[in-house]
Protein: Nucleoside diphosphate kinase
Organism: Raphanus sativus
Amino acid sequence: MSGFAPHIVFLLVLVSVSLSPSVRCLGKERTLGMIKPDGVSGNYTEEIKRIIVDSGFSIVNERLTQLDKETASAFYEEHSSRSFFPDLVSYMTSGPVLAMVLEKRDAVSDWRGLIGPTDAQKAKISHPHSIRALCGKDSQRNCVHGSDSISSAEREIKFFFEDVVSDDIASQHDEL
Ligand SMILES: *[C@@H]1O[C@H](CO)[C@@H](O)[C@H](O)[C@H]1NC(C)=O
């Protein structure tokens, strides 16, 4: 029987080598990316989605939706005591937003890197190739949102997609 052992070891090596790409998939992470009202109304959606895909993300779900005062306030509830909160809510309800579930390895930090600093004016100087440098105006009207941690990503994905059965085609017709 011991004569078979090398064959078994060889087989196990073969199996684990052929499995490794799917095992690596387990390292993928999801984050919430959102194109804010000025980005959508400014016709940046297609260009931003091209940048997203070219940067190695998969857009696994998306939803064009109009936030109302109540939903925008709930989304940003951690900022509710800040002086800029009423402005933030009126900006975020000024037109439709496109929420997207973005997936890749290290999606949370890579998406934050791709969108650049919060203040779009600073982004234009320090991160000229970032998305906020492309279409943001200032630190509030900064064109795109990204979850700031893995736990925020989980909360924010649930916020936009908990009712949506994972079906990209159906969700595209979910607007307004
Ligand atoms: C909107 O953007 C697309 C792609 O980025 C471009 O081809 C198109 O000409 C733009 N449309 C308008 C009205 O600016």
In short: The chain has ten helices and four strands.
